[in-house]
Amino acid sequence: MSIVYSRNRNRKDREKERKLKEELERETEKIEKEGENDLNNYIRIREELKEIEQCRCMGAIVRSRARYVVEGEKCTKFFLGLEKSKQKRIYLEQVEGKNGEIITDFVGIAERVQEFYRDLFRKEEIKEESMESVLEKVEARLSEKDKEMCEGNIGTGEIEAAIAGLGRNKSPGIDGIISEFYIEFKDELVPVLDRLFRGIEERNELPADMSTGLVSILYKKGNRDRLENYRPITMLNTDYKILARVLAKRIKRVIGTVVGNTQAYSIPGRDIADITSSIRDTIHHMKERKGGIVMSLDLNKAFDRVDHNYLHRVLERMGFGNRLGGWVKRLYKGAVSCVKINGIVTDTFRLERSVRQGCPLSSLLYSISAEPLAQVLKLNNKISGIEIPGGQVSLLYQYADDTTVTVKDRESVLEVVESVELYGRASGARVNIEKSEIMYIGEDSGGRVEIGLKEKKDYLRVLGVNLGIKDKEGRDMQLEGIVNSIKKTLGFWKHRGLGLKGKVVVVNALVMSKFVYVMNVMDVPERVLKDVDKLVSEFLWEGKGVRIAREVMENEYEDGGLKLINLEKKKKALRVKMMTRYLRNRGDHTWKVFLKEAIDKCGGCGESGVFMKLKKGMLEGVSDFYKEMLGSWGEFVECVQYECKSVNQVWEQPVFLNPKIRWEGETVYNRLMWRAGFRKVRDLVYEYVPGFMRAQVIVDEVRDKGDEIWLGTAEGVMEKIKEGMPKEWMGMIERENEADEEGDIEMYVGEGERSMKLTSVKTRVLYKCLGKKDVRRPAAEKVWERVMNEMDVRGIWKNLRVKWNSSECENFDFLLRHNRIFNNLIISKFDMNVDKKCDVCGVEVETCMHEFLECRELKTYFERLKDLISRCWEGSFVERMEWKELWLFGVTRRMKGCNVSLLNYMLSHARFAVKLRRNMVHYEKRKADVWSMFRSGMKRDVHMTHRYIKKEILLKDFIEGSSLIEIGDNGEVKMNFD
């Protein structure tokens, strides 16, 4: 019934569109013959056609689920083609058979896909003795408290939280019920799910349809004909995912206590950057010292090969109770899947092994299953890892199915291979030899080992980053690839006809994201950032010259910007974020050992060096990455707030280059005293007597080190330190406060109630802090200061983002307020064929102020707008506000009982209509009624918005506080223009 209805409706819509196009052709011919008598019908037809095309475009957006759709994009065939290209990517035209033959027929492809995944999920023989040998190495156990938490009854609060955390706009499972259904009817469904889950536990099994998964395959890389190069993602029913989310939340709270720091995948508080950075620093250390061997192991179909019995045994070994373990067993007991391929669904097959990718539990269960491998390698005394500072050893790093091992010699390599094979016999895991690599560093590794791994001479790819002997060559190769990818992305989007804001969205969301991960773990030269900035500038301004300064575009909205990301500041924010991770816990990952060494080497104050703003010359001798980190931290540390609560903490403070100790606004520094060992406050005070030591003692110590310093110089430095030091510190030193404050000093950013702990601050906040010092005011503010008497021009940016406004109106308002609208006066300066006079009135010179305020053709238009405002909004805006200010910038403050947002929405469309009328005259030589253009444009946009927002939102944002818009008896929107 619904299919027939939809078919009839589509036929009627196509017929309506055809008639409108024919009518438009007749109107165009009429205008060409009769001149500019009446363009209103022409404008009306054109707007109706535009509305139809927008509806078709929105349908394409819904169907294709395009990830980065910019609101208000132009509706073109190019955009609609994006949907088709996305569908085409998942169609298999041929696949490789079991014996290497190529299968091309439709049925044969489907049968091969089913056969491949049935075999992949089929249980293989597991050696019981191998499993016992592996499991006995696992020593970590849940505490009784954590075990009890995991074993509790599933409560309705947990179900509600799981529903609230469901993602919207996601593909449903095989039952077709989307997550939005559960979110919308949460109150009614929570009791139903509660009964369902209790019933499942009583019967000890899931309903058959609930445990059925629909597998969709995603291409990774390599030969497209080989199914091994596709990742199976299982689309599960929403009720299944809700149950899995409840269990996952419990496990997440405790997993960090049983899974070691060598793993970071899905472990709260850990990050992939911890693993990559640790490997990076270990390789750098191996190059600088005695060398070693790096093995990068890829576990073939790791998630899909996890044996269920092995997984349950690991959970039991780690101390998870029978109840939580029982839930995991039920999720996989009797589980079946089918594969969606080329528009059809294969027959179902049993899941005898695997943790389903697509299940909220899969990442946690996989990390748990991989932990015994870490223990097997760590407890093997025949494996020699890489010795690093602090007497520690760097050996193993795991992230999902990627395992990196750093060892000292060839004997250790052989033992690693044997240990991994033991783990495979216990769990079902298998190393993918084709994708695994080995690299030998230095001459002391004991020679090559023939184990089938691909040897890399210069660098290898670890977790998406090039690391190795020739690290700079690998870095440059990777960054070049990223820049080329950015060129390709921008080349794709430049044909979309986006406005300025849409372009910024593309740059921030697509371009900058390509850099973030690599930038987080790899130094990025300034030249690369400049190349990207140039590409972005050409994209924003289409190679026609910059119209608004880059620094202004980077401002917040309220400062006249569009929040365009500054890559250099982003890099610094990421470096500062890594420093905050170090400060939160200074010893849980290998990279922190090397950072600690770098801080001490550069600052000479041990861990207290984090309070210093180091000079550039002091950063020599550390890796390029840590040069960037310590340099960025030096800029940021001035924004940091902290207090010393005891004299011991004061004594540990750096005395030089400490932003807390300033004389005439500058930090204090004396190279000779620093070289002589006067680096902390404790170095300048007597050991047993309160107060600072005499300057002569400093002079003598400097001379003992082979340098020369005048007594007057030493006295001057000491006076600067005393005067610049916080009074609280001086008081503690002079009376030698004995309060012993244990632990690290807590650092904060912000002031007063807005103060936040530095270790918990997000990267975006750090980015904002770095940008606050460099706010550049828009040049247009000076122009408006001259034009608008006694107006606070900084307020004109407050209401630029009008709710529900079209992107074309918003983009136009942005350029207008920046005084960057092209007019004939500007164009005539580089094109002598263009007349300076106004296209509309044909009398006066067309300046910005003339075009939008002073043109005689606007007089009647303004009177009608004033009348409209007076009728539809309570209170007389026209009398209370200067018309020039209201017209150009709208209302920038709230007014009681008044729908200010709708008023600004209306004025934005009214201003844009003026520009549309001018452009029609300029390019088409036709003069239309600006009031009609305004009405048609606003009516179209309001109707489009009405279709895609809920009724209560429409009432709040478009109806209440104004009489301009009403909802008729039939539910249609009515607009009271006259």
Automatic annotation (TrEMBL):
- Bias class Basic and acidic residues marks the residues at 12-31
A matching Pfam family: RVT_1
The UniProt record lists the Reverse transcriptase domain at: 199-467
Region entry Disordered, spans: 1-31
Q: Which PROSITE patterns match?
A: RT_POL (PS50878)
Q: Which InterPro entries match?
A: DNA/RNA_pol_sf, RT_dom
Protein's name in the database: Reverse transcriptase domain-containing protein
Species of the source: Sparus aurata (Gilthead sea bream)
